């Protein structure tokens, strides 16, 4: 290779693959295998919480009621099976501030409507309402699985997973064949090619042999659901059933350098987040928290979104172990002395659509974890906008701990935009910055991430918990 003259002063994004040792490369691939297990088993918020709870229990985390205030104590707090907080008590008083990492475990998908089951043209179908920002045309003609819970008339919880086991049936939303779609779809905008009401899941075709029943195919589905789960149609009203891709995570690329999977926004950051805390070596100076939240994709509202009081109250409860009679003002002051990483994904440059990205500021696949000063829309709207001081602090922590990271922004100015939970943490006075992992094909059913970026984020989060 011809020697290029390179400035010693200029900033450059370099492939992390060329910066890590052979030994580290091995760890990168091993960590990716552990992550694939998580992403395959955690296809809903509840499944993610169950997964985290299991490994946290194995690692000695205790529920708050059994926990004591002592350095090194490990605590787990759950909220409605859709949020989880892991904490390790530090050597210093919490009144000096805490370090926390927040990421979300909800992902774009299709939710069943409260009364989903209909029959049309000899087919039984389930009506859905999409959750989060999807391109509706992504969701047709591929195998889909159904996950969730149904509360029956007795108030019992029935857990359902159909379509993950190789012997399970799967479901599908059929698009119109190209032979007949010219008039109906041919001239439509991409956002209208598949309409929301047409995201209907094919679930049955055999009619019951019963003259008295009008909707015979629907009846077969009801009878089958009754046989398998003991439910009636009314039970769907008290259910949360999520439709997600039925396939598993796969290595992408002949070099197996990347992972393709459903739900990587934001379960990839969530995995690096909770693992960095569970794997924390020794006792931290400050109390450290890993927080997994729900509802980010639809505005962070609701009981399990970051805007609820769950996190605030939980930090208060942990603080009460140390200071049982604390005043609320002490909790508020504690938060203003705290540091947070909002661990969410970013968008790496897609070489086919370069015009959407800022070639200098957008991140590149495989060039390390992301450090993002702001994530917002037009005119930075909705951005928390981390201060120069905080960016400087994070940059120094990453550099001191030999974490490979890259400066990141979401696309070009006025190209679109997005948001994270960062602003809601800033509302509490917490110094917060976005720092996550780059994805290609974000919000699609099969998002792609680099294994080395995942590993560097894990290292970066560990360094942050230790040194912030
Ligand atoms: Mn996200
Ligand atoms: Mn998202």
Give a quick precis of the structure.
The protein is α/β, with parallel strands linked by helices and 468 residues long. It is built from eleven helices and 20 strands.
Outline the secondary-structure elements.
Layout: H1 22-41, H2 45-58, E1 62-63, E2 74-79, E3 83-88, E4 99-104, E5 109-120, E6 123-131, E7 144-151, E8 157-162, H3 182-185, H4 190-193, E9 200-204, H5 216-229, E10 239-245, E11 250-252, E12 258-261, H6 264-278, E13 288-293, H7 310-322, H8 328-336, E14 339-342, E15 346-347, E16 369-371, H9 388-400, E17 405-407, H10 422-426, E18 431-434, E19 438-440, E20 447-450, H11 451-467
Parallel strand pairs: 1-2, 4-13, 4-14, 14-18, 15-19, 16-17
Antiparallel strand pairs: 2-3, 3-13, 5-6, 5-10, 6-9, 7-8, 7-10, 11-12, 12-20, 19-20
Bound molecules: manganese (II) ion (MN) (2 copies).
Residues 104, 265-266, 296, 344-345 line the site of one manganese (II) ion.
